[in-house]
Amino acid sequence: MQGAGPLLSVKNLYVKYKSYWYTYHVLDDVSINVKLGEKVGLIGESGAGKTTLLKSILRVLPTQGKITGGEIFYKDVDLLRCSKQRLLEIRRKNVGMIFQDPLAALNPVFTVKDQMLEVLRYANERADMNKSDLINMALDLLRDTLIPDPERVLNSYPFQLSGGMRQRIVIAMALASARELLLADEPTTNIDVTIQAQILKLIGDLVEKKGLSMILVSHALGLVRKMTDRVYVMYGGNIAEEAPTSKLFNEPLHPYMQLLLKTAPKLVESPLTEGIKSIPIDYRNPPTGCVFHPRCPYGDQEVCRKVKPPPIEVEKGRFVRCHLYGSGS
Ligand SMILES: Nc1ncnc2c1ncn2[C@@H]1O[C@H](COP(=O)(O)OP(=O)(O)O)[C@@H](O)[C@H]1O
Ligand SMILES: [Mg+2]
C-alpha cells in the first residue's frame, strides 16, 4: 500500500463512444483523485459524462465506449493495464458501485438471498467461510441498510419488494464489495422523492461507519454539500471546477457553477431532481475553445471561443478551467 498517495487517481482521461455513424468524444482530459477516507462529490447536469467517468474507473463501459488516453490507478494498480483477474478482484473486494439504474442490477428470477450470497462469496473467498456465515453476513448488511424483517426479505424475489426496499438491497450488495471505495451514481434516481433524502443519508452514514471513501454523483446539491469533503463540477466532458465543498458552495468560481447554484431553488436538504435545465452538448461537434462558452455570460471573448482553458490552480487544492482566472486577468 502506498503511504500518502491517493486511493484512486484518474489522470488526463479521454473516452469516446463510437456508433456506426458517429464518434462522440465525451471525456476530454479528465483528472480526479480520491484520498483515503475522503468523500468526493461529482456534480453537473445530465450528459456531462459523470456515469462515463465512473464506468471507466471500473472498466465497465458499454462496448461502444473506448478509453483512448490517460491513466487510472487504484493504489498502485494500473487499472488500464492490469490483468483481467486483478480487475475482477478489485471489483469484487475493494470497490463497489451503485449504478444509476439500480433496479436493473437485480435479477428478477433469483431470490435476494441467491444474489447476495453470490456477491458475498466472491467478496470473501476464504476457505473457512461456509454458507451459514455468508447468510449471516447478508443479514448484517440488510440490517445495516435498515431493512425491516431481513429474514423474510432475504427469501423474497425482487418483485415482491417495494422500490425503496430494492434500492436498499442494491446498496447492501454494493457495500459487500466496497471494502474501501464506494462509487454511488445517482443512487436515488428511481425511487420515490419522499425517501430520496433518507436513502442518501443512509449511504452517508454507512460510508462513515465503515470508514469507506466515496464518489457521490447526485443532483441533490444540498446533500452533496453536507455529505462530501471535496467536489468536482463536470460540464461537457470536462472538469470545470474542483474545490473543497464549503469553498465551492460559498464562493463558486466557474461561471457554470455560479449558474448551477443560482438556478438551484434552495440548498436545503430536499433533493433537487434537476438543478439546472440541461442543454445537451453535441459531442460529435462540441464547441471550440471552452465548451461552456456558448452558454457563459462572459463567454463572448475571443480567447473563450478559441482556446480550451487549462486547469488553473487559484489556491491550493482549488482548480478552475476558465479564462477569467487565467494569468494576467
Ligand atoms: N452507450 C453510449 N453510446 C453513445 N454515446 C453514449 C453512450 N453512453 C453515453 N453516451 C454519451 O455520453 C454523454 C455522457 O453521458 P453520461 O456519462 O451518461 O453523462 P451523465 O452521467 O453525466 O448524465 C451522453 O450525452 C451521450 O452523448
Ligand atoms: Mg449518469
UniProtKB/TrEMBL annotation:
- List the protein's name: ABC transporter domain-containing protein
The UniProt entry, under SUPFAM superfamilies, shows: P-loop containing nucleoside triphosphate hydrolases (SSF52540)
Subcellular location(s) of the protein: Cell membrane
List the SMART domains: AAA
- Say which domain of life the source belongs to: Archaea
Alphabetically ordered keywords of this record: ATP-binding, Cell inner membrane, Cell membrane, Membrane, Nucleotide-binding, Translocase, Transport
Report membrane topology.
Peripheral membrane protein
Q: Name a biological process GO annotation.
A: peptide transport
PANTHER family xref list: ATPASE AAA-TYPE CORE DOMAIN-CONTAINING PROTEIN (PTHR43297:SF14), OLIGOPEPTIDE TRANSPORT ATP-BINDING PROTEIN APPD (PTHR43297)
Q: Which organism is it from?
A: Candidatus Terraquivivens tikiterensis
Cite the GO molecular-function annotations of the record.
Answer: ATP binding; ATP hydrolysis activity
InterPro entries in the record = AAA+_ATPase, ABC_Ni/Peptide_Import, ABC_transporter-like_ATP-bd, ABC_transporter-like_CS, Oligopep_ABC_C, P-loop_NTPase
Give residue ranges for domain ABC transporter: 8-261
- GO-annotated cellular components: plasma membrane
> Where does it mainly reside?
membrane
